[in-house]
């Protein structure tokens, strides 16, 4: 069903980019999806198409049309899924290491989406034609729990919980070196690397980002090129989008040259745990992108596992929590280190 949204700009909102304005609204759409819809002419300002960077004005009437999902070109494939829970609204999947979540670029098959379409042809279309049902993602070499939306109602609820940071996501990771502190928080500004667009990086450490953001917002209003968005920043150049990232960790066990930690993310940025642990000086074992090039224990991927996932059920509002056992490779490595 075609969905349409209408907004009228007030004085306080004037002057920011169109795409940023819509991103800040309570819409079940990602930033990239909003920009895609703007470019496709599905967003109009006073009845006229506009660009993502259009600076909105007071009393601008903005209409957004979200069309029905197109017939997907992604083919269903009979791939075995490790399903921990399923009902008429959602599924909870334990994704294996090495599986890509959704098609991208030249990768069109053997993804989680291909498997999902075979198991459940009618998934939520909010994420677009190549990401049906996908509410959040895990890196290819990260194993563990994902929740999948079967319909738009579930997708909207789960997306809202992620935005409000009420979803519980805990990981286990084996990292290089012996972390001295028992627990800690990594709180930074975060963005895409200028040297390598496929990588992310820490822009600046934030000892108390929330207390500093009002000052940054004030500077932004004085045309210093910075704009706030959910305690993050936008610079005038689209390629320099910067956001807040918060990771909390707790030491579970120390080994010689390694530490097993539990990680909780308050924000879900791309590669966040891998970048933050590397920034701490303790990269994830097996992560060749942000860590050491050599891979011990004959690993094919990183030892990072999304172990616990908790959320309110979209329809019943009952809190559900799931736990996925560590993959065999990770268990074997930890056992070998324990014996030493």
Q: What keywords describe this structure?
A:
single chain, 340 residues, alpha+beta, Structural Genomics Hypothetical 15.5 Kd Protein In mrcA-pckA Intergenic Region, Chain A, Pseudouridine synthase, 3 domains, ten-stranded mixed β-sheet, four-stranded antiparallel β-sheet, 7 helices, 20% helix, globular
SSE map:
Elements: E1 3-8, H1 18-23, H2 31-39, E2 43-45, E3 48-49, E4 61-66, E5 83-86, E6 90-95, H3 112-119, E7 143-149, H4 152-163, E8 168-176, E9 183-192, E10 200-205, H5 209-221, E11 227-229, E12 232-234, E13 242-255, E14 258-265, H6 272-279, E15 304-312, E16 319-323, H7 328-339
Parallel strand pairs: 7-15
Antiparallel strand pairs: 1-4, 2-3, 2-4, 5-6, 6-7, 8-14, 8-15, 9-10, 9-13, 11-12, 13-14, 15-16
